[in-house]
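Good morning,

Attaching, inline, the backbone tokens for the sequence recovery test we're adding to the shared suite. The designed sequence is right after.
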């Protein structure tokens, strides 16, 4: 079976491509390389833009696509609040071009990269899939809107979808081939590792007066390899005539920012400087997933999301690739 992976040169996309290949899927990546890296791609890569519908149609015309995994999106919540048009256009219109082309070429299965940001600040923990959807960023709103678009394309055209609502992706491939390389970087683990590697002077921890066990934010960290396996389970479910569905992808528990930093110090052997800064506006105390639904229906289980494996795999990647893919 041939799977088209949009955004397959990105962080989660490239790890999913690798996992698909291990399962003997034929994989084709379509990516504009704005944030992705061609060096991360281990299969045929088409450089193109989903906003250019003719480029999308050319891929489907030339290749018999059996299913789609749709990662391609802008994903910086802060930026989305200063440039909303960029996010609505790219995350919605680009996806619509993809769906219209799927309709034209009768491709009936799509796995969508959604986000826990659709929940906003949840009132109950752990967060179930039925939690009220109250995005607090244009990014989260754009993902929720596309989930609704997918629902209509199922009802009208019979395109079955699985929406995977990720929590905090982290870690790197266990073989050390690929890892996390964003510009700009906003995630705690790679930022702290830049400090441990001497590329930054200090790490700034935003607040230590949250209502958590050590005063710092608690988040549900899910190893990128576990995220990749969730996409494969979702595809297999759809290919077995599964109905459209949506799932949280998280571990069901969380680690605090201080726990993350202490483990990085231990594994790297570097006692780097941590400065306490002011809270960032809008950061909730804690968020972690209720993952019972994906376990029950897809048979998915996180295997690599213990903190030791997360940090060791990330450290091995960053230490070997201090400049990321731009060596």
């Amino acid at each position: 079976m041939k799977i088209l992976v949009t955004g397959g040169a990105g962080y989660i996309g490239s790890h999913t491509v690798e996992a698909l290949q291990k399962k003997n899927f034929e994989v084709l990546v379509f990516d504009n390389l704005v944030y992705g890296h061609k060096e991360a791609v281990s299969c045929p890569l088409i450089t193109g833009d989903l906003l250019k519908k003719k480029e999308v149609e050319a891929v489907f015309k030339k290749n018999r696509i059996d299913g789609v995994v749709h990662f391609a999106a802008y994903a910086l919540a802060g930026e989305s609040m200063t440039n909303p048009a960029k996010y609505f256009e790219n995350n919605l219109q680009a996806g619509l071009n993809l769906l219209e082309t799927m309709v034209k070429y009768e491709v009936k299965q799509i796995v969508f990269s959604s986000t826990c940001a659709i929940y906003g600040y949840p009132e109950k923990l752990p967060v179930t899939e039925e939690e009220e959807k109250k995005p607090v960023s244009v990014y989260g709103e754009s993902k929720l809107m596309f989930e609704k678009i997918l629902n209509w394309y199922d009802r009208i055209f019979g395109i079955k979808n699985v929406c995977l609502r990720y929590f905090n992706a982290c870690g790197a491939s266990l073989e050390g081939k690929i890892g996390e390389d964003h510009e700009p970087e906003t995630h705690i683990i790679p930022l702290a590792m830049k400090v441990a590697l001497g590329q930054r002077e200090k790490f700034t921890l935003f607040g230590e007066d949250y209502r958590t066990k050590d005063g710092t934010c608690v988040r549900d960290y899910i190893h990128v390899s576990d995220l990749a396996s969730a996409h494969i389970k979702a595809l297999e479910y759809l290919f077995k005539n599964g109905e459209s569905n949506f799932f949280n992808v998280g571990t069901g528990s969380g680690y605090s920012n201080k726990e993350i930093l202490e483990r990085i110090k231990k594994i790297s052997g570097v006692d780097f400087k941590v400065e306490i800064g002011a809270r960032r506006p809008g950061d909730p105390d804690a968020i972690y997933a209720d993952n019972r639904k994906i376990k029950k229906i897809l048979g998915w289980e996180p295997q690599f999301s213990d903190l030791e494996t997360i940090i060791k795999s990330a450290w091995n990647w960053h230490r070997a690739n201090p400049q990321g893919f731009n060596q």
